[in-house]
Amino acid sequence: MVLAGGAARRMGGADKPTLPVAGQSMLTRVLAAVHDADPRIVVGRVPPDLPVPVHSTREDPPGGGPVAATAAGLALVPETVTYTALLAADLPLLTGEAIDVLRLTAESAPMQGAVYRDAEGRRQMLCGVWRTAALREAVSRLAEERGGLHGASVRELMNHLRVAEVSWRRPGPPPWFDCDTDDDLRTAEEWAR
Q: Which stretches make up the MobA-like NTP transferase domain (predicted)?
């Protein structure tokens, strides 16, 4: 599941997922990292020229934030799907290998999911793989606790989940590198060459 909403205020309101890195939109690059996922779900606007088939949805009302978007996306995930990747659309350096590391960790750890932890110790919460049932339950509990999900933060959601933190020890750029500014986009372009 790829969250492709958001206002991109630090980029002048640009449609961030469609911005190119190394000749492909960031959204296309993220979807390539989960090429074997079924279904692939995008929560947010899907450009008509997206080169891969996806299911799409929006949170209602739009602009509800990442947890409301997560709930909307989960509504399209079949009950038979054991693991769900929850990813931001602005991760142009994400790879299939990085997703495999998270999935294998989630499968083997006695936790409900796995996310990357950066060098400063911060959890990269929109670069993770979760047990689908646990993610659904956490969303449901948070909605009940708050009386709705509009405006809920991912941090609030994570308070309802046990997570394994994974360090990236391979050479090259970190797979969770997100593009929030024009400078970030230039850096991603340099790394992607």
A: 2-148
Cβ pair 60, 21 in contact under 8 A: no
Q: Which residues contact 148 (CB under 8 A, 6 or more apart)?
A: none
* CA–CA gap between residue 143 and residue 147 (Å, rounded): 5
- pLDDT tens for 124-167 read 999 999 999 999 999 999 999 999 999 999 999 999 999 999 99
Q: Measured between alpha carbons, how far is residue 34 from residues 37, 79, 146 in Å?
A: 5, 19, 32
Q: Model confidence over 112-128: pLDDT tens digits?
A: 999 999 989 999 999 99
CB 114 within 8 A of CB 166: yes
| Exposed/middle/buried for residue 128 (C-beta within 10 Å: 0-12, 13-18, 19+) | buried
What does the longest C-alpha to C-alpha distance in the chain come to?
46
Query: Which of 115, 108, 117 lies closest to 163, judged by CA?
Result: 115
